[in-house]
Amino acid sequence: MDCEKEMQKAMSRFQKIAAQLEANSLDAMLITSAPNRFYAAGFASSDGTAVITRDGSYFLIDCRYIEAAQKAVSDADIRLTTAEKPAAEQAAELLKARGIKRLGFEESYATVKEYNRWQEKFEGCELVPAAQMLADLRMIKEPEELESMTAAQRIAEKALTEALEFIKPGRTEQEIAAFLQYRMLLHGAKKMSFDPIVVAGPNSSMPHGVPTARPLADGDFLTMDFGCIYNGYCSDMTRTVAIGHVTEEMEKVYATVLEAQLAGIAAAHGGVIGKTVHEAAAKVIADAGYGEYFGHGFGHSLGVEVHENPRFSTLNDKPVPAGAVLSAEPGIYLPGQFGVRIEDVIIVGGTESKSIMEASKELLILR
User: Fold this and answer.
1) Pick from 93, 113, 139: which residue ends a domain?
2) pLDDT at 7
3) Of all helices (H) and strands (E), which one includes residue 334?
4) β-pair type (28-31, 49-53)
């Protein structure tokens, strides 16, 4: 590892967050959500609170995780929470001792109950919405994050390769969904990024359809949208395959979706406006006569969570930074007939973007 990379690694996530406090007019940041807690501490748990000040960080955790946290979490003062002295009370003491006046919190995750408790406990401290500060940091992926996401993608692709041997007429959507999950877990996934979407025939016209007991039949399109979590990071992919044969229109729709995806990827680069990428793909679909059948955005970012910002959609009129990782997943959905979606995950580069996927996107007809 070269010296520059060693220096980058030496700066912990706690320090990176602390370095943003002054620019955001904050004295400290309170982190309670599982995704941001993992991002900051590199430690996954169902409980925990981080308090990050400009010159020191604290990680508050209960007895179930204290020993593991002491081994895994660095650059923070790790403290045990108890029923007698819960996290909110300890955080209040820390804030008072450090003279914290403006405290950032995650308004995108906090409940009203939590907010009211903090208002009561953190006397003399103003609670300031600051989830965007963390989202901005998470937006650009570090090399280690990309390694984990790529590894998660390879696991998903292995499962797909095996599923293609398993898929045949008579198998149900539920069976295929279960098979994909089992194979991903077998290959090292910790859990799924989300519940797999495995839909066939007329069910495939529902972009987020739920797998059913419907058996596959000759002439079906089968759409599989799935991913897994490895080392805390998500993969996400979609492939649509045909069973037995395709009609002329099925072939046209598949070719159109693939062309649209490639057009969107070609338009993606650092600094591009998010909706510009979406529009490049949507134009291909509209020109083919299917514009009304593509209703969702071209793509979303992912990382610790499977849906993050920024996005390639009509709602995003801001530039997408180089170093962001987004999905590229246009689709066409003909109600009651069939649907097609093809999804890759791309790394946005300064002048162009590249896919981290290796799975083929050519139309595959399983016989």
Assistant:
1) 139
2) 47
3) strand 331-334
4) antiparallel
Residue 9 is predicted with a pLDDT of 54
| Sequence-separated (6 or more) residues with CB below 8 Å from residue 24 | 104, 130, 133
- pTM for this prediction: 0.94
What residue numbers bound the domain in which 49 lies?
3-139
pLDDT, averaged in runs of 10, over the chain (367 residues): 50 95 98 97 95 97 97 96 96 97 98 96 96 97 98 98 98 98 98 98 98 98 98 98 98 98 98 98 98 98 98 97 98 98 98 96 97
Q: Are residues 151 and 262 in the same domain?
A: yes
Q: How many domains, the chain?
A: 2
CA–CA separation, 274 and 311 (whole Å): 6
Task: Report the alpha-carbon distance of residue 316 to residue 248 in Å, rounded.
Answer: 35
Output the pLDDT for position 10. Answer: 65
Bridge partners for 233 per DSSP: 230
Q: How many CA atoms lie within 13 A of 153 on its CB side?
A: 22
Give the separation between CA 90 and CA 291, rounded to whole angstroms: 55
Run of H or E residues at 345: strand 344-348
Which uninterrupted H or E stretch holds 224? Answer: strand 221-226
Helix (H) or strand (E) holding 199: strand 197-200
d(CA 185, CA 156): 10
55 phi-psi bin (left φ>0, alpha ψ -120 to 50, beta other): alpha
Residues 6 or more apart from 120 whose CB is under 8 A from it?
none
Measured between alpha carbons, how far is 265 from 270 in angstroms, rounded to an integer?
Answer: 12
Strand partners, 222: 200, 241
255 shares a domain with 291: yes
CA dihedral 321, 323, 329, 330 (to 10 degrees): 30
Closest by alpha carbon to 52, among 73, 71, 67, 66? 73
Read off φ and ψ for residue 8, nearest 5 degrees. -65, -40
Angle at 70 between CA 66 and CA 73, to 5 degrees: 115
Closest CA to 32 of 112, 93, 88, 94: 88
Report which DSSP code applies to 34.
H
Asked if 92 and 170 sit in the same domain, the reply is no
Look at the block and give the residue holding tokens 């109950």.
Answer: 113
